[in-house]
Design brief:
The protein is an alpha/beta fold. It has 13 helices and 12 strands. The relative contact order is 0.13. Bound molecules: nicotinamide-adenine-dinucleotide and thymidine-5'-diphosphate. The site of nicotinamide-adenine-dinucleotide has 30 residues, from helix 1, helix 4, strand 5 and strand 7.
């Protein structure tokens, strides 16, 4: 690939997108990086304050469903790479309002694909040197059984080597070959968009890549998701709504490590391939919640564990997937990526960041969102 590139990153004002934009803008001064985002409730330009004045960065407010506008942008900016993160991303919202998820995640992705196809096919070199990289989730694979040994506390899998991990905990993981079996409207919409991306490769020869990542945590995550929501509630001594018995298992990756994987795969991944991204770090919700409580307490100078009494068991999420666990050995073996942080370090950094950035949190949680959250909570 040439060294000069014109890249659109969609959803760059969101949680993961902002980390990807920051990494690309800082690491590749020779690239033009265009952050395309509609700025929904989840998009926040304050996530990118530190890089907004860089000469290789530009923000464009646009809806990914706006085919004409995106087609024009492709032509005006000679776009040769698309890293697509824009999406509706919260499972609870998808349960209430599945249409918005189909519109953005399915129709929006299709609109980007079709505009990219028309533009790239109009060029003399066509698809050469081009890339459409679609960011997806492990949730498309459905849910795994709880196969970890009874009574073993979280984390199940912080061992460094994945072969040790497999020896200790069995082989029941999501692989790139695992059949899609989405359960929530969110994961169904993401699965559908993944299929469209692959169809554009198989039908038109578009150079596409899809990656499926596990749950991310870290700075700038919208506080409707478990970890930032709970950090903020603990700070204000508000109840912590644990769905069901808190026994569901998620596999957590520090967001910067996801962004690093995206960089590696965008540049070195093989066209038409799928890569799973994860750090072998499974936690039962209730165990991770206890770690978060104790960390917040310690950092705020409260007695460690003082806020455990905020834990409030509430009605379970409809169709709540039992366990997600990603096998990322293909990415590790073929492209040499591995997580840079152990979980203990990542969660400490994350809690510190939210406590030190109260303004960021308060700006989001005041006003409209607060009302939305209180209504959600009342209805559980
Ligand atoms: P997010 O909700 O924090 O951000 C989504 C961004 O997309 C926001 O900036 C929003 O304004 C923008 N957006 C939404 N609809 C749009 C539209 N119609 N047009 C243009 N922009 C629009 O999401 P996130 O957690 O950063 O997730 C980013 C991507 O990564 C998503 O595709 C998600 O499915 C995937 N993913 C997320 C996780 C996770 O743990 N958060 C894990 C794996 C994969
Ligand atoms: P979430 O952060 O919404 O991510 P996802 O649903 O995509 O995995 O939720 C993570 C886990 O935490 C999930 O099992 C649901 C649970 N959860 C709660 O118990 N309480 C909450 O208030 C939230 C938001 C999530």
């Amino acid at each position: 690939m040439e060294s000069k590139r014109n890249i659109v990153i969609t959803g760059g004002a969101g949680f993961i997108g902002s980390h990807v934009v920051r990494l690309f803008v800082n690491k590749y001064p020779e690239y033009n990086i265009i952050n395309l985002d509609k700025l929904t409730y989840a998009g926040n330009l304050a996530n990118l304050k530190d890089i907004e004045d860089k000469p290789n960065y530009k923000f464009v407010k646009m809806d990914i469903c706006d085919f004409e506008a995106f087609y024009q942008l492709m032509q005006d900016e000679h776009i040769d790479g698309i890293i697509h993160l824009a999406a509706e991303s919260h499972v609870d919202r998808s349960i209430k309002d599945p249409f918005t998820f189909a519109r953005t995640n399915v129709m929006g992705t299709l609109s980007l694909l079709q505009a990219a196809k028309l533009y790239w096919e109009s060029l003399p070199e066509k698809y050469e040197g081009k890339r459409f990289y679609h960011i997806s989730t492990d949730e498309v694979y459905g849910a795994l059984e709880m196969t970890h040994p009874e009574g073993v506390p979280s984390p199940f899998t912080t061992v460094a080597s994945s072969s040790e991990h497999h020896a200790a905990y069995g082989t029941d993981f999501f692989l790139e070959t695992t059949k899609y079996n989405p359960h929530s409207p969110y994961s169904a919409s993401k699965a559908s968009s993944d299929h469209f991306v692959r169809a554009f490769h198989d039908t038109y020869g578009m150079p596409t890549i899809v990656t499926n990542c596990s749950n991310n945590y870290g700075p700038y995550q919208f506080p409707e998701k478990l970890i930032p929501l709970f950090i903020n509630n603990i700070r204000h001594r508000k109840p912590l709504p644990v769905y069901g018995k808190g026994e569901n298992v998620r596999d957590w990756l520090y967001v910067v490590d996801h962004a690093r994987a995206i960089d590696t795969i965008f540049h070195n991944g093989k066209v038409a391939e799928t890569y799973n991204i994860g750090g072998f770090n499974e936690w039962k919700n209730i165990d991770i919640i206890k770690v978060v409580i104790k960390t917040v307490d310690r950092l705020l100078g409260r007695a460690e564990g003082e806020d455990l009494n905020l834990i409030t068991y509430v009605t379970d999420r409809l169709g709540h997937d039992a366990r997600y666990a990603i096998d990322s050995r293909k990415l590790q073996a073929e492209l040499g990526w591995e997580p840079s942080l152990q979980f203990e370090e990542g969660i400490e950094k994350t809690v510190k960041w939210y406590l030190e950035n109260e303004e960021w949190m308060d700006q989001i949680t005041s006003g409209e969102y607060e009302k939305y959250y209180d209504d959600m909570y009342k209805n559980r």
